[in-house]
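Throughout this review, each integer encodes one residue's backbone shape. One record appears below.

===
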Amino acid sequence: MSEHTLSWLRGRWGRWGLFLAAAVVALAVGLHVARHGWSWDDNRKASAALLAVQLPDASGQVQRLDQWRGRVLVVNFWATWCVPCREEMPQFIRAQAEDGGKGLQFVGIAVDSADKVQKFSKDIGLNYPTLVGGLGAIELSRDLGNRLMALPFTIVVDRDGRVVHTQLGPLKPDKLHAIVDPLLAAG
């Protein structure tokens, strides 16, 4: 920022305005890097790493993400205590019910305990698998591109196992359909 801009911000809003402006710029840069900072090699490595993930489901059975290879896979990192996570899940339930037969597969990875996941899943009528990663799931999400280590974080993988989209923050219904519909149609 130029000295003139800094001076204007100090005079207009004081130190809090300057702090707020810096925070907004930092957030915007972080979101941009989180969404667009991957090279092709990083994408291939992330795709392979994601499909190699093995975690227990809420009943304790170990599941591998590569069992859903050949489907359009939407992997959502979430937690029962995360309000934006809870708000986006009903649309995921609807999309799984509507498009599961076309090859769409949602899988949740919970940053939580199995007992909380079981209760929450039952309460909302979750119709797709949820794996339990505990606090280690945050680190896993970072390794898969969630540089801010925030929730929710969603990864979309095409039928060939390539990561085609990552989303930090809630995935709105129109954006979800814009991403997965062409992938489903191509299959």
Notes: The beta strands are 54-56, 62-64, 72-78, 104-110, 130-132, 153-157, 163-168. Residues 1-37 form one domain. The chain has two domains: 1-37, 40-185.
